[in-house]
Structures are given as structure tokens and as C-alpha cells.
Amino acid sequence: MELVHFLDNSLFDENAEKTFLAHKKIMKESLPEADVQHVGSTAIPNSLTKGDLDIQVRVISGQFFEAVDSLSALYELNEGSIKTDRFRAFKDDSTIPPLGVQLTVIGSEHDFFWKFRDVLLRNDHYRKEYDELKKKYEGKAMDDYRKAKNEFFQRLMKTPEYKKL
């Protein structure tokens, strides 16, 4: 059973930003039209993180399969994630911090990572609530944490702050 652990994201700030900028540059070389964004907890000051870096790559529908091919040449497909014609997940565990890449079609049902980041950045009470959830699952089963995290974000999607984005 995989256990989840969290740390203050300030421990990862410098490496996360450096890794993000390096990989954004690489991605933009092969996908110049893509919108490449730093998402996840390392993008949100004062939050707890598992210590990984998340990047969302947003493309228009007609560029999706080209983007899949480009990112497949750079990263490993994340086999533990869903795979659709509007979403793919990739990873690189060799980077510092480890990297997760979410490729989404702009405006699709999976184009929400940047919205979650923005809601948490603009509304500290949601960030604190999310951190409290993380504290509750510290050292516990990753699957249980992921279920609770999903419930939190499903509820966040119903808020006026999220709907404005």
C-alpha cells in the first residue's frame, strides 16, 4: 500500500520553478502554440505538497494528437491515469522534483487544473481547507487521500469562484 506524505512547498520553490521553466522551454520548442502552465501545489505559495511538480499543457482540439506524439517523445506515459482523446498524462520521475504533465484540450471537461490553481491562489480559505485535508491524510493510504482530494475538487467546481473562471 502506497502512503502519502506532505511537506511545505517552500522546500521545493527553487527547484520547482527551475524545473518548470526548463520543461516549459522544451515543450514550447515542439509545441509553440501550447499554453504551458505550472499547476498543482508547488504553484501555490504556503501550501503543502507531495513534492512533485505538475504542468498542464493546454492545446486546441486539432493539435491534441500532435501534442500526444511530441510529449510521448519527451516523457513516459502515466499508465495509472485515464487516457482519452482530450486528456493524457505523462511523467518523468528523474527530475527534481518529479514531474507530472497533464495534456488537455482547451475547454474540455479535463481543462480544470489551472482553474483549481487560480481558485486556491485567490481564496486563501480554500487553500487552508485543502491543506487541512492533506494533514488529515498524512502517512495514510494514497488511494484514500486521492478519493478525498477528488471530493474536495468536485465541491470546489461548484463554487462561484470556480465558475467565474
Molecular structure report:
Helices cover 44% and strands 19% of the residues. The protein has one domain (7-163): Beta Polymerase, domain 2. The strands form two sheets. It has a five-stranded mixed β-sheet, with helices on both faces. A two-stranded antiparallel sheet has the order 1-3. The mean pLDDT is 96. The chain has 165 residues and is of the alpha+beta class.
Shape type: globular
Question: Under CATH, the topology is which?
Answer: Beta Polymerase, domain 2
> How many separate domains make up the residues?
1
Strand content: 15-25%
CATH architecture: 2-Layer Sandwich
- Which sheet architecture does the biggest sheet show? 5 strands, mixed
Q: Note the gap between the termini.
A: 37 Å
Mean pLDDT: 96
The SSE string, one letter per element, is EHEEEHEEEHHHH
Radius of gyration: 15 Å
Full CATH superfamily name: Beta Polymerase, domain 2
Q: What is the CATH first-level class name?
A: Alpha Beta
Report the count of strand segments.
Answer: 7
Count of helix runs: 6
Structural category is alpha+beta
Outline the low-pLDDT stretches.
Answer: none
Helix amount: 40-55%
